Amino acid sequence: MSSTSSVASALAVACAVGAVVFLHKSDSFRPPYPPGPWRKPFIGNLLDMPRQDPEVSFADWGQQYGDVVHLEIFGKHIIVLNSLEAARDLMDKRSGIYSDRPRFVMLCDLMGWANATTHVHYGPRFRKHRRFVQQILNQNAIASFQNLESRQTAIALGNFLKTPDNFADHITSFAAGTMLKVAYGYDVEAVNDPYVQIVEQAATLTVQIGNSYPISNLVEFFPWLKNLPLWAPLSGFRQQAEVVRQAVDKMMNVPFEAVKQQMSSGTNQPSFTAHLLEQYSSAGKGTISQDDEDDIKGAAGTLFAAAEDTTTCMIKVFIFAMLLHPEVYSKVQEEIARVVGHDRLPNFGDQSSMPYFDCVLKECFRWDTPVPLAIPHRLMQDDFYKGYFIPEGAYIMPNIYAMMHNCENPSEFCPERYLENPELVDPRDVVFGFGRSPGRHLASAAMWLLTSRIAAVFHIEKARDPDSGEEITPPVEFSTGFVRHPKPFFCSIKPRSEKAVRLVENALAETQAA
């Protein structure tokens, strides 16, 4: 070997050694990741991930490791935020670098949600989708929906009178009917309305595939799995995803195409979709680009599905909580009687005069957090928090369940906690996620009106066993999924008096005359 080659080889070795030493020193000078469960080689925390109720396991880890917990799966970093302080410090105060969303392979590629608002990366298109919703559902515009909510409430109360045992279906019809009208101008005429059935099927299947751990989650870390042939081992999730994709496509497309056809014939009703289609069509001098149309369709579908499911969940929670806590329900009814009397139904003008009822609704949102894990965000650049390093690209997952259970006796349903400590955070400011959530105002208003009127006109009591006659006390159990519903339960719902029946009948007559 020549002396020149020897020198070159020595320099190469020296450079390699120097690079290793430099990288080692750089890494050693970098603050550590936040604490978390011990990571195994290559797979990291894959085997630690809970199969059910991940929010509960994450909260338990928070007790062990702190408010900010670090996980890693196949080299991808996940940061769980278990405290409101950490979530606000990062998601709100540093929103400029925490507002991006991951591109979920399962949802975006296999299930066809590429245009959904929640799965668009932060940037012009993301802000466009958010602007769409903000135009229609900002807090100042909510008053324009009060007549709609009154109409839907009257229909729901009438359904409760006719078939009280089907109360869960009536709640779904109420929430879906409200959002279908807002999003598409569509009137729900019956409990078994085909549009309601479409969204229920899509929601049910989406929750099922979200819970099909671990294979459906592996595709997020190994995107090439989405290309497995259907006959290959481990490819069952692809078949399931195709079924879900078809259901989601139907939910997105059927009402949207109906609005377009109605606009062509001049028969459409005012709606979120029609307003935006008209706006962008006028800007394009009678034409609208495919991108704009896809964005409007995605924003409308996402708005409808998200608000419908959350509203349905929380009204069920109210009935469930009042069933289990009749002493609370009695106080609610006494307050309504003092403010409203017995000759009319509550209306939005009564809200400020019913503080105890407001505390009950707060406690409903806290006791069963409707969306226990907020939709993950994606960190856009390296960041440091309280001496820890959070790498660019990390998934940031606020654990709203843990935040809402960071109080005394978190499992107890106790509205009085908000009267005793007015400084407690209002759960409604947290449970809809971080950043802007315009749909929260409509969902909260719809819940307030229906639940206050249910309390005004109905008794809610435990059902009785048909054989023994004994009361049936349902267990306090909630489903696992994106939205945390109470598990199905039985109860007895009856009108409080003949006058209460007439109030419902008069409300129905007013909606038919309008």
TrEMBL record:
Query: At the top level of its lineage, which domain of life is listed?
Result: Eukaryota
> What cofactors does the UniProt entry give for this protein?
heme
Q: Please tell me the species this chain comes from.
A: Schizophyllum amplum
Q: Which UniProt keywords apply?
A: Heme, Iron, Metal-binding, Monooxygenase, Oxidoreductase, Signal
Q: Per the record's keyword annotation, is rRNA-binding included, yes or no?
A: no
CDD domains the record matches: CYP64-like
This protein's pathway reads: Secondary metabolite biosynthesis
Q: Mind telling me which PANTHER family this protein's record contains?
A: P450, PUTATIVE (EUROFUNG)-RELATED, P450, PUTATIVE (EUROFUNG)-RELATED-RELATED
Q: From the Swiss-Prot or TrEMBL record, give the protein name.
A: Cytochrome P450
What family is this? Answer: Belongs to the cytochrome P450 family.
GO MF terms here are: heme binding; iron ion binding; monooxygenase activity; oxidoreductase activity, acting on paired donors, with incorporation or reduction of molecular oxygen
> How far does the signal peptide extend, from start to end residue?
1-28
